[in-house]
């Protein structure tokens, strides 16, 4: 069950009786194993319908959907659904069962023995950052919205299904917790590598979460199916352009990290170094200003001209070394920091806090104008200690 | 029409005792002496109540489950139960006499009819009130319709079902007091035998009301035991 | 089998005949009983008794329910009034009045009024407390006094539920008035209670008559309720909204 499955929509169509326009119109796309495919679009575009056609909660009118090259219509719906993780917006936990029993629902259906189920429940609770001993025996009514959301995800993961369907799973959460949950989920995905169909109406969430994004227009028509970077740089038509939003360029910045770009080389000096040597370093660097560092290489401040007046470098700062940009920061956040501090340059530090380079507004502007070759996205864009 | 007034009094039993009894008063001595008289009627009363509620529950519960899936059945079934309820119990007891004869069975048939509406309405309402997202999640996870019904819908409908059971039970205790019209015995027979005598009314009445309250409490306890998630949420 | 059926039909036939045609009494052949005019007379008495009882019970229950509900007081009493009321057999209620107060129209009517009280009280209380807080706040903000709020906001919005309670009360009272003759008050139950005078046909005939009457009253009130419910409240009219929040204790109101 652990192998991630491939999913293919083949001219999948859903037509409701008495309606001219189909809800989903000949949708064709393939989701490679282990990837997150986000279905996104305005209300009524058929994204939820398409998702629910996969586990046959909604019947397919024509066309087919293939899970690992097997049509989903081949099996009994109940059987099929037990192999697909299902997480919906309102979560739908069973109020009358404890958290543990909720998660154990499908394992029980499949006849797992008690020992195995108990272990799995604890495993899953830890996976979603909840304390098993505390949470296992509580009832959904006693928990907060965020906790219930995590349990919903844990429940969907219970039998380690090869495919997961998620319908706006973070929709009912406040923005702050939503971001946290999204990050945690991406971290999970990095470990688990499941094939996931993720429905959302929020284009920012789609860009953040998706390996591939399918934008649907009203009438269930596929407007574009592409990676987030492609989507942002080469929108297929006006609809996609409008849907993605006018700030496409800024959105692109959310996709890249500081570590991904070629930073400017800055001259770092220690107090007391010879000025002559320092002047040579400046020649080499991309930026004229000097960055003073301490013995460990941590940035101290930007030096003024007067620091180089004598033979040795003195402690004469023109400004503090703020903001400090981290290699793991998303470019958009780094830009935001620079603008806020009203500086054009920022010292970039690594995990140990040592200077790794210099980031400038100019550099960012340069990045915006040239398309990157490889833009990591989805779970790959996330780094371990986020 | 005075003659029937006297006839109404014809049923008075022989009453032993002194002035208290002669004055139709509340006489503790008489009560103590005659308590044993009420045992059989009381047991019969319990029997009538428990059996009719049990049978009524089985019937109404089954009907409600069927109507839950086949919605079009709801209006006719509700209407039928309503009509049954509207017929005064005394009338129903009498109407059944030519058909089922005189005795306990007739009493039971009538009493069962009265439990139906409460149980049917409450089971239906309970099933209706199950959160739609839990039902959707259950289906999406792969529960068959039957598993969905018994593992999710019915458990979540329990509070409402128990409410219906409590109402049905207390009402049946009350109606069983009139079962003597069908020849089914019960505490009502004792009451009717000597309706002007305060002691008689006091004892039989207290027994009937007490029974209703005790049964109500018992069901409440069972409900409390069977719905731990409501206790937890309230805590 | 056909013999049983024949007997049954015979019995019912005799009963229906009793309703329409006068017959000599079983007890005293010189007196005539039964027939349309007597049945109508008893029906009117039955309705008069029931109507007065419901009127008095309602006259007490509605103001009480409005007051308590508005001030959010007396929850335990209001909710459990119906439960307690249900636990008291109607026979016991009547005979308590007979034994401790006496026979006649007034005691019996009062006992029936007491029967009518709980459903109306509970429904009124539940309906008033479930009127949207916002509406009440807005009204208070506009400067309405408590009485005005009750009269102009809470009462109109509570009417469907209150009416449902009155329906239940009315059906219960009309049904129970059948045994009013136990307390020397005439009603359609008279032929039943005084079986010796009226005979088996009389008893059965009266049973049919009183059933028809109760059904008619129930149906008429249902139609009346539909007629007076404002369009906006038609959905879920008569049933107080049952909120399924785990923290809120459910309020049971009278259902049928």
For the structure shown, list the relevant keywords.
heterotrimer, B: 235 residues, mainly alpha, MetI-like fold, 12 helices, 78% helix, C: 256 residues, two-stranded antiparallel ribbon, 9 helices, 71% helix, elongated, disordered C terminus
List the helices and strands and how they pair.
The complex is a heterotrimer of chains A (386), B (235) and C (256).
Chain A: E1 7-14, E2 24-31, E3 36-40, H1 47-54, E4 62-67, E5 70-71, H2 77-82, E6 84-87, H3 99-103, H4 105-109, H5 114-127, H6 132-135, H7 145-156, E7 163-167, H8 175-192, E8 195-200, H9 203-209, E9 212-217, E10 221-226, H10 228-233, H11 238-244, H12 248-253, E11 267-270, H13 275-284, E12 290-293, E13 299-303, E14 317-320, E15 324-326, H14 331-341, E16 345-349, E17 355-360, H15 361-369
Parallel strand pairs in A: 3-8, 3-9, 6-7, 7-8, 11-12, 15-16
Antiparallel strand pairs in A: 1-2, 1-4, 4-5, 9-10, 12-13, 13-14, 16-17
Chain B: H1 3-8, H2 19-22, H3 28-34, H4 39-69, H5 74-86, H6 89-100, H7 104-128, H8 132-141, H9 145-176, H10 187-193, H11 198-226, H12 228-234
Helix pairs in contact in B: 4-7, 4-9, 4-10, 5-7, 6-7, 7-9, 8-9, 9-11, 10-11
Chain C: H1 2-20, E1 22-24, E2 32-34, H2 36-70, H3 75-87, H4 90-100, H5 105-129, H6 133-141, H7 146-176, H8 190-193, H9 195-228
Antiparallel strand pairs in C: 1-2
């Amino acid at each position: 069950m652990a192998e991630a499955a491939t999913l293919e929509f083949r001219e999948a169509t859903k037509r409701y009786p008495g309606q001219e326009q189909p809800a989903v119109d000949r949708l064709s796309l393939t989701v490679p194993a282990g990837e997150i495919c986000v279905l996104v679009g305005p209300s009524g575009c058929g994204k939820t319908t398409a998702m629910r056609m996969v586990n046959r909660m909604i019947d397919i009118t024509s066309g087919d959907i293939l899970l690992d090259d097997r049509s989903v219509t081949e099996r009994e719906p109940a059987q099929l659904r037990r192999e697909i993780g299902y997480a919906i917006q309102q979560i739908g936990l069973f109020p009358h069962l404890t958290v543990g029993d909720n998660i154990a629902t499908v394992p029980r259906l499949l006849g797992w023995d008690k020992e195995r189920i108990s272990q799995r429940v604890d495993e899953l609770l830890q996976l979603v950052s909840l304390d098993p001993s505390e949470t296992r025996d509580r009832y959904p009514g006693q928990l907060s919205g965020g906790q219930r959301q995590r349990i919903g995800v844990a429940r969907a993961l219970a039998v380690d299904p090869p495919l997961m369907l998620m319908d706006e799973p973070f929709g009912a959460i406040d923005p702050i917790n939503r971001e946290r949950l999204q990050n945690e989920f991406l971290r999970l995905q990095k470990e688990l590598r499941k094939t996931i169909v993720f429905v959302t109406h929020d284009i920012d969430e789609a860009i953040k979460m998706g390996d591939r994004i399918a934008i649907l227009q009203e009438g269930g028509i596929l407007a574009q199916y592409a990676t987030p970077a492609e989507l942002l740089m080469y929108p297929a038509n006006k609809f996609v352009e409008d849907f993605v939003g006018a700030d496409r360029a800024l959105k692109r910045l959310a996709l890249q990290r500081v570590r991904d770009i070629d930073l400017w080389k800055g001259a770092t000096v220690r107090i007391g170094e010879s000025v002559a040597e320092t002047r040579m370093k400046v020649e080499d660097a991309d930026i004229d200003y000097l960055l003073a560092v301490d013995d460990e290489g941590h940035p101290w401040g930007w030096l003024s001209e007067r620091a180089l007046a004598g033979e040795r470098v003195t402690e004469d700062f023109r400004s503090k070394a703020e903001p400090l940009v981290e290699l793991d920061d998303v470019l958009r956040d780094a830009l935001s920091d620079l603008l806020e501090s009203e500086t054009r340059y920022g010292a970039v530090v690594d995990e140990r806090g040592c200077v790794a380079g210099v980031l400038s507004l100019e550099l960012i502007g340069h990045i915006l104008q040239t398309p990157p070759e490889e833009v990591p996205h989805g779970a790959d864009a996330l780094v371990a200690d986020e | 029409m005075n003659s029937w007034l006297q006839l109404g009094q014809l049923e008075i039993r022989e009453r032993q005792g002194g002035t208290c009894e002669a004055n139709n008063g509340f006489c503790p001595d008489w009560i103590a002496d005659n308590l044993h008289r009420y045992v059989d009627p009381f047991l019969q009363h319990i029997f009538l109540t428990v059996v009719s509620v049990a049978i009524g529950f089985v019937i109404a519960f089954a009907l409600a489950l069927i109507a839950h899936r086949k919605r079009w059945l709801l209006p006719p079934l509700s209407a039928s139960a309503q009509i049954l309820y509207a017929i005064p119990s005394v009338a129903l007891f009498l109407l059944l006499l030519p058909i089922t004869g005189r005795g306990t069975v007739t009493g039971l048939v009538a009493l069962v009819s009265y439990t139906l509406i409460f149980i049917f309405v409450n089971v239906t309402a309970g099933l209706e009130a199950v959160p739609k997202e839990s039902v959707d999640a259950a289906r999406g996870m792969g529960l068959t319709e039957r598993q969905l019904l018994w593992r999710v819908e019915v458990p979540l409908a329990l509070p409402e079902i128990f409410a219906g059971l409590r109402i049905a039970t207390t009402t049946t205790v009350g109606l069983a007091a009139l079962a003597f019209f069908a020849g089914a015995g019960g505490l009502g027979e004792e009451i009717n035998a000597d309706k002007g005598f305060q002691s008689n009314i006091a004892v039989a009445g207290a027994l009937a009301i007490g029974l209703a309250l005790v049964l109500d409490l018992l069901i409440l306890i069972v409900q409390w035991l069977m719905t731990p998630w409501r206790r937890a949420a309230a805590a | 089998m056909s013999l049983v059926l024949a007997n049954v039909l015979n019995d019912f036939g005799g009963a229906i005949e009793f309703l329409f045609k006068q017959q000599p009494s079983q007890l005293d052949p010189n007196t005539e009983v039964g027939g349309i005019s007597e049945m109508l007379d008893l029906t009117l008495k039955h309705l008069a008794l029931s109507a007065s009882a419901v009127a008095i019970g309602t006259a007490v229950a509605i103001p009480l329910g409005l007051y308590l509900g508005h001030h959010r007081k007396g929850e335990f009493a209001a909710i459990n009034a119906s439960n307690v009321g249900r636990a008291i057999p109607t026979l016991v209620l009547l005979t308590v009045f007979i034994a401790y107060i006496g026979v006649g129209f007034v005691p019996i009517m009062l006992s029936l009024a007491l029967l009518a009280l709980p459903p109306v009280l509970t429904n009124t209380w539940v309906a008033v407390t479930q009127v949207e807080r916002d509406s009440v706040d807005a009204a208070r903000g506009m400067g309405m006094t408590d009485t005005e709020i009750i009269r102009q906001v809470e009462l109109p919005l509570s009417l469907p539920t209150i009416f449902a309670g009155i329906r239940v009360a009315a059906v219960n009272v009309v049904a129970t008035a059948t045994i009013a003759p136990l307390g020397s008050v005439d009603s359609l139950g008279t032929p039943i209670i005084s079986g010796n005078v009226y005979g088996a046909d009389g008893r059965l005939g009266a049973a049919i008559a009183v059933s028809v009457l109760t059904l008619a009253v129930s149906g008429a009130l249902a139609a009346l309720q539909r007629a007076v419910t404002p369009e906006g409240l038609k959905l879920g009219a008569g049933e107080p909204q049952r909120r399924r929040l785990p923290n809120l204790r459910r309020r049971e109101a009278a259902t049928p």
